[in-house]
Design goal:
It is found in: Cytoplasm. This protein is α/β, with parallel strands linked by helices. It has a single domain, classed as Vaccinia Virus protein VP39 (Rossmann fold, 3-Layer(aba) Sandwich). It contains eight helices and nine strands. The longest helix has 11 residues. The structure holds S-adenosyl-L-homocysteine.
């Protein structure tokens, strides 16, 4: 029901999502109020729907971003260390950084260089975004997200923004104990969100949640096939 939450401004969109129960955490709402979606989804930013950002990628709908951030929230504290795989527009990377600042870090991973650049450019559009980049709270890197990002591991929370073929073991390895990963996984023609919890003693628990539609977590396009 994308239309129900549509607003004329970022604050209207976010407040409508909150009133309609699509955001159910005040902390996540405040973080999303601090990030203007127009900097990341320039066509129709204040509608609760996904939209294309080029290179076969989409910025997810804001209610999906809210759901992911809320799911990870117990592991998002000032100072927490987060991995955002398939960072695309950079929107969620910025929202997560609003929650873990100060002293936290969110690493956005993309396998297409123009999208690494896009995330960075979008964040440069606001003073808050520029500061988060300048002080190292947010970092965008080019890598294959299926392997995580070992250089800055381990992470309190891992968000995967594209549908994986499997629960990549390297990602689970790079979770702290305790830590949580939010990951869409392909299952036949369907995709489901899985939440992976690593307990303090290292025990791993996998929970299947609702069905979703994400773009796939894949090999990068071959040279010359990037649109
Ligand atoms: N969270 C982003 C989602 C972008 S769509 C947003 O809301 O803007 C999913 C992204 O995953 C795409 O940008 C795509 O380029 C990226 N992706 C797909 N496979 C990948 C891989 N193996 N490694 C890193 N990024 C990948």
């Amino acid at each position: 029901m994308a239309w129900r939450s549509t607003g004329g401004s970022n604050s209207e969109l976010i407040n409508n999502l909150y009133q309609n129960g699509m955001i159910d955490s005040a902390k996540v709402k405040d973080a999303m109020l601090g990030v203007d979606r127009a900097h990341y989804a320039p066509q129709t930013p204040y509608v609760d729907s996904p939209q294309p950002i080029g290179h076969s990628a989409t910025i997810s709908a804001p209610h999906m971003h809210a759901s992911a951030a809320t799911s990870l929230l117990n592991h998002l504290k000032p100072g927490s260390h987060v991995l955002d795989i398939g960072s695309g527009s950079g929107y969620l990377t910025h929202v997560l950084a609003e929650i873990v600042k100060p002293n936290g870090q969110v690493v956005g991973v993309e396998h297409i260089q123009p999208l690494v650049d896009l995330g960075r450019e979008n964040m440069q559009k606001s003073a808050e975004g520029r500061e988060l980049l300048a002080n190292g709270t947010v970092k965008f890197v080019k890598a294959d997200g299926r392997l995580g990002y070992k250089e800055l591991a381990p992470y309190d929370a891992i968000h995967v923004g594209a549908a994986a073929k499997e629960l990549h073991p390297k990602l689970i390895e790079q979770l702290k104990a305790p830590g949580r990963m939010f990951i869409p996984v392909e299952e036949g023609f369907l995709q489901h969100i899985y939440v992976i919890d690593k307990a303090e003693d290292g025990t791993v628990e996998k929970k299947r949640q609702y069905s979703v539609q994400y773009v796939p977590l894949t090999d990068p396009p071959k040279h010359g096939q990037e649109d």
